[in-house]
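[job 0412] stage=fold_complex status=start
inputs:
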Amino acid sequence: MRDATVQMPLVRPARLPDAPGRLRGGWLVCCSCVMLLSQALVADGREVAAEVLAAQQHRVEVVSKISAATVAVFAGEQGGGSGVIVSPDGYALTNFHVVQPAGLAMRCGLNNGQVYDAILVGLDPTGDVAVIKLVGRDDFPYARLADSDAVRVGDACYTVGNPFLLASNLQPSVSLGIVSGTHRYQFPAGTILEYTDCLQVDAAINPGNSGGPLFDAAGDVIGVNGRASFEKRGRVNVGVGYAISSNQLRNFMGSLRSGLLVDHATLGATVATGADGKVYVSDILESSDAYRRGLRYDDEIVSLAGRPVRTVNALKNVLGILPAGWRVPLVFRREGRVEEIRVRLAPVHAAAELAEIAAGRRQSGPPQRPGEGPAEEESPVVPKLPEPVRDLYETKTGFSNYHFSRLQRDRVTAALRASVGDENLRGVWEIDGTLEDGRPFRIELSDVLATIDLPTGTSRLDPREALDKSPVPPGSGGMLAALVVWRKLLLEGPETVGRTDAVGTAPVSPDLLPVKAETSLADLLRTDVGGVSAETFVAMDGGPTAGRVVGVDLWASPQADPCEVRFERDPAEASRPAWMPTVLEVHSGSTLFGRFSIRSFQVRPADSDATSTEEPAS
Amino acid sequence: MRTHTRSGESQCRLRTRQDWCVRLCVAAVLFAGVAGGETASASEAVIELAARTVVKIYGAGGFRGLESYQTGFLVSAEGHVMTAMSTVLDSGEIDCVLDDGRRYEASLLGIDPRREMALLKLDGEGLPFAPLDGGRLASRTAAAESDERTGKQNPPAAAGPLPHGDLAPPATRVYALSNLFGVAVGDERVSVQQGVVAAVVPLAARRGAYEAPYAGDVYLLDFTVNNPGSAGGLLVDVKGQPLGMLGKELRSSAAGIWLNYAIPLPEVAASFHALLTGESTEMETTAESFPFDTRLLGFLLVPDILEKTPPFVEAVIEATPAATAGLREDDLVVAVGSRSVTSCAAVAAELSRIDDGDAVRISVIRDGQIVDVNLGPRPPMRLPVAEEPVLGEGR
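[job 0412] stage=fold_complex status=done
writing structure:
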């Protein structure tokens, strides 16, 4: 079985269409046949039921729409594959194994007969996904990501793409079939490229279809095609192909669009099926978050991230569609008692390992070591990019293309600004309120001092110095430092606070899993400042809370449990500006440090604010 | 007990242009409906009913990475399972996993070498099953209620063989359900594929150099259904009428291409009734009479002197595929392709089953480890003219 399931190979192009000639042919043989058939029937004097014609017309329209959003990816001499555009500004999904040989830049054909330049944005080597961006238009035809958990076996589906690189006239091939299986687990081919929770279809997936879209009957994307089972019949479709689910793609999309080299997640524990058929922890790392939250050897896993776990495959399926770093609810049973914990998922690979994969990608471009490659001439060390995408690439450790992280950070910065409006935030923030037991608290935040008065005592911090000395207040994991980072981000803007990068999207609460729509995700900023590291959740564009900071996780040291501050806002609250929270909820590790209900929030202009920060230019 | 006569094959075939039109029209309606999502719930219901009767079958003792799985389907509420006869069943322990994940150990009641089918029995009751008497799939409760009303008991055992003439015509839209590539495990649902019956024709097929024993009518299908693990799977039309059993992987005798076919339900029913009444016969194997000479691949096994001589490699000939692939003296051959072997004769027999030009992969035990060895394409069966090795070339 393991041998039989393989990555679609790259196929060599017959030729790359160099002139953007306009070619308009029939979309596909299949549709043409149906049309001919209907004509034949009419010509034969037979009536065709109106609903049949309507269904046919609908299908023709769907095929027209989905063909326009499908991309033929040409990776030069190395071959090519397929892809699908998912935004009007040209972001497209494809497979890692399609873009890997192409390196940073590739050419992409659409069925309007035009060839566009594209640049690599984000890479997910483990999940076999890549995001590229086509340039030259801001009105690309695009497809929407549907909820792949709603897909049922037997549902009609279309695979669209460039099998055997047939699309030399840039017209994609379309194949109609059904969904043969859902939530399939496919072992990694080689060491990575594991397909978890994928869709299995009998619509044709052949070499060259890799990276191309799997559409539902309505023409929305339910997956990205990438693998097929082959055996003795050779490397052609045998009615068994696999697509990465759209829900997995959605979970990773934010990170990929931020130009990250993204990693998949591990629990830090292994599981095995017991004699009773249930799933038990067979080994667990004491350094893992799952262990710190209380999971132990021999506990029975009941559910993860809101999905029941009845087999080892089911656990791998749930885990495989989640990015490293997300927090998920985990329910386990021990001696008949059921417990729920929140586990932060660890990365599968060491950062250096993933970087090596990226390096491997670049090595497959022009030969870098003299004498090794077939070409004798000097090869450039810096990749030579085509003119249209030359300014769209920036290198940085941990990123496949840092340029796009910058773009996302600028977008989040603008959203943060918009949420604050014209209000002058400079000065001392005075926050008063009560704890759950009714006793009062007071927080003061300024450029030179941060204090918190609690019934248990007062804690202080100098925001100009190291923030990691002792996480205060004691037991919070670093609440004051988290608030300092929050204030700095709002006041100074992400680009000037320590080193702040846009690192994708995540749900602000594990309760939002599983993610069915982009709106349950928040933008994520990672900040390294004053010896601490923080991740700030900013509500996405489009919602009523757009641009508002909804959470900060702060690590005073990499090994310790972070302080998790959640900024809640009572929707009925109208007297205070939208960016001001009404409640702060603070967790550290497994415990709730406190729920702070804010009664009054004042920004008092500081008279002696020495460190007058410049308003950063946008 | 009913009796039936065969009403002729011609009925199953297209005769006139009008037939074409009518059938294609039917196909177009269904095609359009399915694609338009209009019959989504209906197809979902049919697939649900069909999938609940299909079992994943595992033969014990398979090596890691070796194919040791296939498919079967329940034909009685008491746990009778019809499947394909194969080496997967050559094990003392046959496991059946139902759609809901329940696992049973099954016993082999009998084999039908002519149709290459086998009957298994697992210890169950009230199980969903595919009726062999020509009835449609029904939900378990509906079937049970109907049985209570009519006082009918154990329908498949009571009913006789089916009318053979009632085969589904070409252009019938069908689903194939099977454990292909062993992709589904536990309570994961078997794979479902969709297509149409392309023709109803007598089977003329071979496996390796040997003619397939079954030569009756089969449904030729327009989609690839006979994959590893598919054998024994269920073919059902889109309305929920069981039509047949997916066969083993075979090539056309005439063209050498891989076939996509299913054996019609009346044959399954006939086999079931024969096996239930104990008309089982031992498998006749002809492979031993045409053993493959391993020298063609570049190695010799120890002299075959015992009834079951352990297949140790005696010698590896230089500059041959075996030498290139790293086969060594004293390696113990334990599998040829996905089939386990325990004797020199079995190695020769299994090699003879592989088609000319198909890849030969054997597994050997060396220093306590299983090692896979790829010997490349299998050369033609005939011996080289010269007795001495001339095998290095031609690779």
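[job 0412] summary: Chain B has seven helices and 21 strands.
[job 0412] exit 0
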